[in-house]
Write a structure and sequence with these properties.
Order of helices and strands: EHHEEHH
CATH architecture of one domain: Orthogonal Bundle
Oligomer: single chain
Length: 98
C-alpha cells in the first residue's frame, strides 16, 4: 500500500475583525471597577471614557474603555506624568488642611 500524498499545509482564514462590543453604563463601570455613578458624573463634567448614544441609551465600547484605562497607567507615583495628572487631587493631603 502506498502512503497518502502529502497535502500542503492549510492556510488560516484571513483574520476578520470582531465587531465592536458595547457595554451599558453598569457593565462598563463593572468592567473598570468603578461605580456607575462615577461614569455618569464623568459624562457630565468630562474626563471619562468616550461613550456613544443610541437613542436614549448610553453605551461604551470595550476598546474605548481599555484605551481610557491604558492612558491612566503609570510606573510610579514619582512619575512626572502622574504628578501632573494628579496635582489637583484632593486626596493628596494638600487641600482642606490649615
Amino acid at each position: 500500500m502506498r502512503p497518502a500524498p502529502l497535502r500542503p499545509a492549510a492556510t488560516p482564514p484571513p483574520a476578520t475583525t470582531q465587531p465592536a462590543r458595547y457595554l451599558t453604563n453598569d457593565e462598563a463601570a463593572d468592567f473598570l471597577r468603578l461605580s456607575p455613578r462615577t461614569l455618569e458624573k464623568q459624562r457630565v463634567i468630562g474626563g471619562g471614557p468616550r461613550f456613544r448614544k443610541f437613542g436614549r441609551r448610553v453605551m461604551y465600547s470595550v476598546a474605548d474603555l481599555e484605551t481610557w484605562a491604558d492612558a491612566r497607567s503609570f510606573e510610579a507615583t514619582s512619575d512626572p506624568e502622574y504628578a501632573e495628572h494628579h496635582s489637583g487631587d484632593s486626596r493628596d493631603g494638600q487641600h482642606g488642611r490649615r
